[in-house]
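Predicting structure from sequence has reshaped protein science. With that in mind, we have picked out one protein's residues alongside their backbone shape tokens:
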Amino acid sequence: MKFDSDDMAYAFYSAYAHAHGLGFSVRKQFVKRTSTGEVKRRTYTCAKEGKTAMKKGKQVAYERPITRIGCLAKMTCKLQNDGLLEVVSFKAKHNHDLAPTPMKHMLRSNRKISVAQKAIADDAEKAGLPIKSVINLLAVQNGGRENNGFLDTDYYNYIDSQRRAKMIKGDGQAIMDCFQKSQSDDPSYFYSVQLDDDDLIMNMFWADSMSIVEYKHFGDVVCFDTTYRINKYGPLLLLSLESII
């Protein structure tokens, strides 16, 4: 069997790991490349391949469960003269129980956030929608969370990575750009930033026009829980805090 690329070979082995009554997670292991960076030889293994390195004499707050137990199941491909990667070795036997069918979607290599799902996440982020609401919506559309193709944690991690990418030019400058944009959209928008001796942001405060008007009426800071509609009965949660302005 031959493949056009390293990615296609990995996709095949991942699909194999998820089909035919099997259920195991896959990862790329050994790789040897040509002088131009092209994959010359690659081994794809069960995620339980190898042994977990034990750090002697070092105390840790939390010990992660041991997942690498020396499983020998793997597929090795080698670059041929025709430019294709050919399977030269295949070991199917595992030294552990495989994941049952209902649990297959939770295996790391089987979890994928599709391009369409990422687009929905990006639009929801721009609209300020709670991530949990988006996940619930996708679960309804797909007939259950197990059909989403990912875990809730994966979606939260994707959103977090996108937020971090937007802050690449610097947190401080990004915050100031946000404040200035908000003020240009809402002339009554107020913000104040306190800097330390090194001109780094130490404290900041902001309030939009609606918050200012409501404060004048109530005299306290009023907080509304924006996620209340997720609840089955839809109650409105209101927190009235001591005056801080």
Summary: Residues 152-166 form the longest helix (15 residues). The chain has three domains: 2-49+65-110, 115-166, 171-241.
